[in-house]
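Case study 2.
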Amino acid sequence: MADLTLYHSPLSRSSDVLWILEEIGEPFDVHLLNTGKGANRQPAYLAVNPMGKVPALRHADAIITETAAICTYLADAFPQAGLNIPLDDPHRGLYLKWMFFGPGVIESALIDRAFPRGGEVPRATLSYGDFDTAMEVTANALTPGPYLMGDRFTAADVVIGSNLRRMIMFKVIPERKEFADYVTRFAERPALKRAQAKDEEFAKV
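Prediction:
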């Protein structure tokens, strides 16, 4: 049994963690959950993650939930993979910004766009302010690129890139060259290819 176990539902947000686990290259086990049949709402899994969501990660005796938190944790726990920005690096703050910009801003903005509310919500009450600003800030951060931290691919690119890939697929995100070029850069990453191949097999179970 590996020290790392991913509680996973194929083709979901937990696929982001599957990708970063492949990038890290450490042995890991996968505990599949059929969320369509409510396995994530059963007592056994609620003991792991009381929110009843995937992903969750077990690392020895520690359990970590929330995708961006798991990605941050893994990048710091296995620095040899080169996916984190160290604590003493002045760029650590910018890196952390993007780690949490993903779920706090981009994902919130895109979900609101995909599933509009009944009435207008005051800008100040939304974590992302407004959709157009969130998209513009993200696009600007990818110029000149190639990655959020310049030439260095990090866990932040897994978090942000996964969100953009999903929303391009569902045609929620604006068609912008910055986004298309950014996502295309991931296509040939061996770790992403391995994760996608595994996910396709998991989805057949």
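The longest helix spans residues 92-114.
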